[in-house]
Amino acid sequence: MIRCHEWQNLRRGRGQAWLGGLASQDAITTTNFTWLSDQALVSVPVAWWSSAVIPQSGSSDDLCLLMTTAATLDGQTCGDTYSYVCQIYAGDPCDSFLPGAQYHDETCLLPLADEVSFDTAVVRCFRHQEISSRD
């Protein structure tokens, strides 16, 4: 799934979408998430998060990283269903082999409209990566 900051431009106004991260809150003024692709911990200001929900530490449920329609971050229960964005490491032009994808920073960002759980989105993005690696 997606692991770059281009998500804001890609998804603004297009509905909510899973991104490739797990959300957690470690401090009052900074909220963190971890990218699944490389386990990098990213610390972002609270202002980047939806005012409705800022992930709270100590929750019994994992919270997965979601981008809202306003292009802010949110932590949602991973079993909920939303559309998702895959980040595929492939060459340009993306659209020639991944219809609808946009090229950014040596990767293809592929927004997918079908609504699935976070785990299903991770599996599907992995499959897209495998297929594009063969070409």
Describe it:
The structure is a single chain. The protein has 135 residues and is of the alpha+beta class. The protein has one domain (1-135). It is 16% helix and 37% strand. The chain contains 2 helices and 8 strands; from the N terminus they run H-E-E-E-E-E-E-E-E-H. Strands 1, 2, 3, 4, 5, 6, 7 and 8 form an 8-stranded mixed β-sheet that branches. Strand 2 and strand 3 form a beta hairpin. Residues 18-87 form the C-type lectin domain.
Question: What's the arrangement of secondary structure elements?
Answer:
Blueprint: H1 7-11, E1 17-25, E2 30-35, E3 41-45, E4 63-67, E5 73-77, E6 82-88, E7 102-104, E8 107-116, H2 118-134
Q: Radius of gyration from the CA trace? A: 14 Å
Secondary-structure-derived class: alpha+beta
Low-confidence stretches: none
* Topology as a string of helices (H) and strands (E): HEEEEEEEEH
Through-space gap between termini: 19 Å
Shape by Cα distribution: globular
On the 0 to 100 scale, the average pLDDT is 75
The number of distinct helices, counting runs of at least 4 residues, comes to 2
What does the main sheet amount to?
A: 8 strands, mixed
Strand content: 35-45%
Summarize the structure in short.
Helix content is 16%, strand content 37%.
List keywords for this structure.
135 residues; alpha+beta; eight-stranded mixed β-sheet; 8 strands; 37% strand; globular
